[in-house]
Amino acid sequence: PIFALVFASLMVLVIWLSALGTHSEIPRLPQPPENIDPLRLSRLFKEIKSSLQIQPFRRIIAAGFLFSAMLGTMLALVIFGCTYFWGMSSGEIGTVIPVSILGVIVGTIITRPVSAFIGEKKQTYMVGMVWFAVFSSSTILLRLVGFFPANGHWSIVPLVTTTNAIAYMGWGVCSAITASMIADLTDEHERVHRVRQEGIYYGASSLMAKVASGFGSFAAGIITDISGVAGLSDPVLIDPAVILRFCLLWGTLPLVVCGIAVFVIRNYDIDHVRHAKILQEIDIRKSTGKHLYKKV
Q1: What's the whole-model pTM score?
Q2: Assign residue 268 a region: left if phi > 0, alpha if psi is -120 to 50, beta otherwise?
Q3: Are 54 and 188 in contact (CB under 8 A)?
Q4: In what helix (H) or strand (E) does residue 251 lie, and over which residues does it extend?
């Protein structure tokens, strides 16, 4: 109850701080066209269709679904991994998870300098996924090949906690840069369809993340059943063959899924040069009075 109360209070606090911090921006937000069609179910499906016509959007949705599903799976498996693979107590697990969340926050904060260093948003997104995959899998695979101390050693908890925090920084980078990439997609949508449509893009991205996370929890259940970890109670009595099966699935999952996601996103083609041309075309249309609402 205390854990839930603390995080529920933090969620409410962050929501209110975000609302108060951005309230002054409301007057500067783009306004909807005066001749826009009334809201109907048919219009909603037309807008969804028009957004899916933007090829980079299909790419980022597909890659994002894979990444979010993998994250949901990893989050659902972390208790099993820390208990049966690393032999941690509930108190030690209670240290690993909050520090990992702190890693997400730090990753979000450093996204801008990381993106500036890399140069392009797509490459930053790809680096974030690889970053998460490598650090998430490294400790597990290193233990399997004998490069980690035995359970109970004083260094296990600091090593796992630190590595997980670094891995989750990659998640933070991906989350922040995704929002920036979607902002570019709304500009492309405006160029193609002559109307801004932020809501459908951010709403689709949020829905995709939730659906994928739920799918990840389902996949985690399959992994625990296949490996035999489900239903175990005493980590000391666990069959080594069971933990080996579990860790081969748990440890390789981020590498495989993120590798596929990187392959999917590789043809996302809105870089800073193309985005500048998109904005230029929109500005020219507006200045010549040709930027009129076009029904989709």
Answers
A1: 0.82
A2: beta
A3: yes
A4: helix 240-265
Question: In 3D, which of 104, 99, 169 has the Cα closest to residue 131?
Answer: 169
pLDDT for the residue 32: 65
Contact 96, 158 (CB under 8 A): no
* Residues ≥6 apart with Cβ < 8 Å to 134: 167, 255
User: Residue 137 pLDDT more than 90?
Assistant: yes
**Contact present, 294 and 195 (Cβ < 8 Å):** yes
| 2-11, 81-90, 258-267, range with greatest mean pLDDT | 258-267
pLDDT digits (tens, 9 = 90+) for 42-78: 777 787 788 888 888 889 989 998 999 999 899 888 8
Residues 6 or more apart whose CB falls under 8 angstroms from that of 83 comprise 93, 235
Cα–Cα distance, 73 to 137 (Å, whole number): 13
Place of tokens 């500009």: 187
Q: Which residues contact 280 (CB under 8 A, 6 or more apart)?
A: none
Burial of 213 (0-12, 13-18, 19+ CB in 10 A): middle
Tell me how crowded residue 133 is: count the other CB atoms within 10 A of its CB.
25
CA distance 270 to 261: 17
Alpha carbon distances (Å) from 137 to 6, 163, 170, 233, 254: 30, 10, 13, 25, 7
Is residue 90 classed as helix, strand or coil in its secondary structure?
Answer: helix
CA distance 214 to 66: 12
SS3 of 187, please?
helix
Residue with tokens 């890693």: 103
Of 290, 246, 206, nearest in space to 84 by CA: 246
Residue 276 tokens, joined:
């500048």
Q: Give the C-alpha distances (Å, rounded to integers) separating 32 from 38, 124, 191, 203, 281.
A: 12, 32, 16, 17, 20
234 three-state secondary structure: coil
